[in-house]
């Protein structure tokens, strides 16, 4: 996969891939989320894709299901130390599926890549 990152003005930095554009920006005047916020959102939404698929495969309604993601950062470094994903289900959600729902969310590809991160290589090229 190739993504094109460009600079449309101000502090905006956008990523383009396929037919999609992910816009990012920086405070104080931000017209889009920061790149780090998009990264963090990708963790919860990835888990959500797996939860959604689990429910759809079993014919389970997703009304009332949501994932609450909590970010815990070090007060000293500001670095993220822990991310909690709480899958909230309605009272009538079958108890027998709750452990499987957790297991399914843990299969998220974003989470797996964080657990075994890729190597980075940054270069320049004159065009």
What portion of residues belong to β-strands?
25-35%
> In CATH's first tier, which class of the domain at 34-115 applies?
Alpha Beta
Biggest beta sheet attributes? 3 strands, antiparallel
Strand order of the largest sheet: 1-2-3
Give the termini separation.
Answer: 20 Å
Q: What is the CATH superfamily label of the domain at 34-115?
A: K homology (KH) domain
Structural class: alpha+beta
Q: Could you say what the CATH architecture of the domain at 34-115 is? A: 2-Layer Sandwich
Average pLDDT number: 96
- Count of runs of 4 or more consecutive helical residues: 3
Basic shape: elongated
Series of H and E elements:
EEEHEEHH
Helix content: 25-40%
Oligomeric assembly: single chain
- Could you tell me the number of beta strands? 5
CATH fold group of the domain at 34-115? GMP Synthetase, Chain A, domain 3
Radius of gyration: 18 Å
Unreliably modeled segments = none
Describe this structure in words.
This protein has 3 helices and 5 strands. It is α+β, with helices and mostly antiparallel strands and 127 residues long. It has a domain at 34-115: GMP Synthetase, Chain A, domain 3. The protein is elongated, with a radius of gyration of 18 Å. The strands form 2 sheets. Strands 1-2-3 form a 3-stranded antiparallel sheet, with no helix packed on it. The two termini are 20 Å apart. The mean pLDDT is 96. Strand 1 (4-9) and strand 2 (12-17) form a beta hairpin.
């Amino acid at each position: 996969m190739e993504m094109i990152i460009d600079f449309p003005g101000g502090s905006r930095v956008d990523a383009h891939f396929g037919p999609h554009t992910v816009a990012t920006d920086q405070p104080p005047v931000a017209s889009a989320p920061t790149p780090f916020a998009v990264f963090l959102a990708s963790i919860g939404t990835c888990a959500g894709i797996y939860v959604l698929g689990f429910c759809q495969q079993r014919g389970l309604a997703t009304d009332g299901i949501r994932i609450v993601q909590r970010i815990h950062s070090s007060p000293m470094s500001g670095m993220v130390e822990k991310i909690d994903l709480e899958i909230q289900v309605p009272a009538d959600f079958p108890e027998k599926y709750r452990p499987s729902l957790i297991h399914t969310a843990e299969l998220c590809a974003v989470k797996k890549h964080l657990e075994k991160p890729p190597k980075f290589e940054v270069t320049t090229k004159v065009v």
